[in-house]
Amino acid sequence: MVEDLFEGLPPPSSNPQEAQAREQEQQGGGARGVLQIPSSSPRKKDSAPSPVPAPPPALKSALKRPKSDEPTNPPGAESGKRLRFKTHTDASEAQVIDAMKKIASHIRNPTKLGKASKLAIQLIQAGSVKPGTRDYFFAILAAAMSSPTACTDQSVRSDYHALFSAAQDAAEHLSDEQKNQLTTWTIQAVVANDLFTDDSFVFSKTAGRIKDIISNLPVATEADDIEEAAALEAEKASTDLPGNQELPPDNRLGANNGEELDPFGLDALIPSKAKKEENPKGKKDAAAKIRKEEEDEHKRFLKSQREASIVCLEIAARRYKTPWCQTVIDILVKHAFDNVSRFTSKQREAITKLWASIREQQTRRKQGKSVSGKLDVNAFEWLQQKYATEKISIRHAVGGSGDRRAQQWLG
């Protein structure tokens, strides 16, 4: 008779909880850790079945937390507790104004100009320049241009270039007068500094911008020359007599024995027939005053444009010793000399002297010979000499004789 090897074993169960309960019952009965082999003899009715231990549990990673220790958070709670970083800080208008005041107070110092200009650029990029803060922002630019160190100085050149290049993004929020002043400062801080570049393409592009600025200037009038002479005389007088002080604005003294006129401000409360009659006239005077201010602002803008153009021409002329700059400088100074009528009398003299200096250097360059024995001329001068005597045909021919050898050669 074949013995049944599975006799005496409990029926298989698919529920792991029942197997775990049997294991706990076995451990409580004193048969812990003892493996009992069922007997081959037939099972008696009164004998209890031999307990069989459950298979050992699967090994778990030591890095994984047990389910009992994991917090039971509702869905969405993890996203609420996730760590986040702010990419920008929302500042009120009062805080922005306070920051602009501090920047304006430090940007005058050449040693602090670099850090202050970077902070000003951050305000521009953050969109902090608005109609309510434009005056404080303009004060930063004015303080930067009033620095004792020139904006074309090598130590601060890059800082000025970056600041006024970024200021173009905030120009739409400025007033018309502030825009005109910013345009002049941009010529001095950006265009003039681009003339110090080592890139021939940037240098040529900058020279083209200066040519456009000169071409857009109106022809100078005799009144411009008179105002220029008067400004020079006033500047000379202020230099000769320093320390002149004006009376404070609150010191309103009358012409008779220094008595105050209307010390309590009662004249404004008393109705007067003369004041009623002066209302239409006052409106006309106000309109005329506004037109006069606009004309004066336009004259100041043109004056500053001319002065900035002269500064750029002088900087370009200093780089004439660089060989690859000579052609561009020749064209630029020649253009300024051809449009010399757009400048005032003193400026016309400066441009004439500058053009004479350039012509003299051209002559010296042509007289000196290089290693190859040819005249030391640049590309522009070589082409100018070549095409000065060249005959150009209107019949799409290569030479003046009308031959078409180039077309035949090209097939």
Care to describe what's here?
By secondary structure, this protein is mainly alpha-helical. It is elongated and about 130 Å long.
- Overall radius of gyration: 45 Å
Oligomer type: single chain
Q: Summarize the helix and strand pattern as letters.
A: HHHHHHHHHHHHHHH
Shape: elongated
Mean pLDDT figure:
74
Low-confidence stretches: 30-37, 246-260, 369-373
Sheet/helix structural class: mainly alpha
Count all strands and give the number: 0
Measured as a percent range, the helix fraction is 40-55%
Q: Report the end-to-end length measured between terminal Cα atoms.
A: 111 Å
**Count of helical regions:** 15
Strand content: under 5%
Can you summarize the main beta sheet?
none
Biased composition (Basic and acidic residues): 274-292
Region (Disordered): 1-89, 236-258, 271-292
Quickly describe the structure.
This protein is an all-alpha fold and 411 residues long. It has helices at 16-28, 77-80, 93-106, 113-125, 134-145, 157-166, 176-194, 200-215, 222-240, 273-277, 279-318, 326-338, 345-367, 379-388, 405-410.
